[in-house]
Amino acid sequence: MTPPASRFAFTQRQSASNKTPRQINRNLVFNLIRTRQPISRADLARVSGLQRSTVSLIVEDLIRDKWILEGSIGRLPRGRRPTFLELNHHRAVVAVDIHPSQTTVAVTDLGGRIVAQNLVLLPVEPAKAIPAIIAGVRKLITANEDKTFVGIGISLPGRTDLGLQKLIFAPNLNWPVLSIKPRIERATGLRVEMDNAANACALSEVWFGDSDGNHDLVVVNVSEGIGSGIFANGRLLRGENGMAGEFGHIQIDANGPLCGCGNRGCWETVASNRAALRYFQEGGGSASVQTMEALIKLAQAGEEHAVKALETMSVYLGRGLRMIASALAPREIIVVGDITSAWYRFGPLVEAEFKVNSLSKGPRLRPSLDGNTARLRSAVALVMNEGSI
Ligand SMILES: [Zn+2]
Question: Running along the chain, 389 residues long, what does each successive block of 10 average in pLDDT?
C-alpha cells in the first residue's frame, strides 16, 4: 500500500510548488484527518511521517481556525488516553458551478460532502445573470444559517487570469463575469476563490480524489465546451496569461462547424455536449430533446438516434484525448462531465479511439469518480486548498 503521506505532490516536490512547507504540511494533516477521522495526534504523526511536535502545532492551528474539533476520548490498554480529532461539521463552504445558461449553488461540509444544492436558471438578459447568482447564494446561506462559512468557491467555464482575477476567455458566456468575484464578496462578506472548471477539477483530483498527486494528470471537462486542466511536476500548469490547456480550441476539421472562438471545427465543436445534441438533431432526433441529460437518458433507453449521436461524440472525444496523450504524456487522463454517467456504455468507444495507433501503453483513461458532482467538489477544493499550486 502507498503510504498516505505521498498522496500530495507538494510533500515531495516542494521546489515545484508555490506553497510554503508549512502550507504543504497543513494540507497533508487536514486531509489525513478528513479521510481517517476520528484520528489521534499520535496516529497522525505515524501516518504522515511528520514530527509529533509539527503535527501538534498544525492541529492547534486547525482547531483555532475551527476547521477541526477535538472529539471523543480514546481508550488504550495503558498510558495516556488520546483525544480524537475530526472535521468541524458546523463549518461549510459554498460551491458555485457556473454554466452558460444555468448555475448550481451548493453548500458542502469541509470534506466536500454536499449538504444542500439549488439550480439557478440564468436570465436571458446578461445584466441579470450575476444578481441571479448572488440571490441564489444568499438564499442557500440563509437556509443553512446553523453553519459558519469558510468561503465561496466558483468554478467558471472560461480562463481566469489569476493576477487580475478576471475572466479573459470564455467564448461560451455572453454575460459579463469580470466583476463576479468582488460582487459576491461584497454581497456575502465571505472570501471568494475562483478558477476555470478544468483547473479546479485537476486540483480537486489531487485534493479530494484517489490520484496520489505524485504523477502528472490532465482533467478534461466535457460540457457545453471542452476545457482541460493540467497538473504537471506537482503544480497546475497555467501557461502565459493562464491559457495553457485550450485543447478544446485546436482545429480538428477545417470545414467543421463555427466555434464560439471564431474558428471552425475546433475539438469542442465535434466532441462536446453541444456537438452530441447537434448530431442528434441532424440525424432526425426529436426537437424536444434540448439537454445532454435528456439525450443520455434516451440513449440508455435504447433510442437509436440518441445512441448514434453519443457514439459519434465518443469517437471524436477519444481522438482529441489521443492528442493530449501525445502532447503531454501524463500518467492519467480523467474525464469530467455528463458523459461519465453513461461511461459504461460509451467509455469503451472513447477508449478504443483513444488507443488507435498509440505508440506506447499511454495514460490511464478514466471517468471522474465524482460523476456529475465533480465540478461542485472542485469549487470546494478551491476554497480548502490554501496557497496556489
Ligand atoms: Zn474554438
Answer: 38 46 79 90 92 94 92 68 89 91 92 92 82 95 95 82 49 65 93 89 79 77 92 85 86 91 93 97 93 96 97 97 93 94 96 84 86 86 70
CA of 265 to the centre of ligand 1 (A): 7
Q: Does the reported pTM lie above 0.85?
A: no
- From CA 29, how far away is CA 12, in angstroms rounded? 15
Instruction: Quote the ligand 1 centre to 257 CA distance (angstroms).
Output: 10
Q: What are the C-alpha distances in Å from 238 to residues 46, 224, 329, 344? A: 35, 21, 17, 32
What's the CA-to-centroid distance between 266 and ligand 1, angstroms? 5
357, burial (CB in 10 Å: exposed 0-12, middle 13-18, buried 19+): exposed
Domains within the chain, CATH numbers bracketed: 4-87 (1.10.10.10), 91-202+376-384 (3.30.420.40), 212-368 (3.30.420.40)
Distance (angstroms) between ligand 1 centre and the Cα of 81 equals 61
CA of 159 to the centre of ligand 1 (A): 13
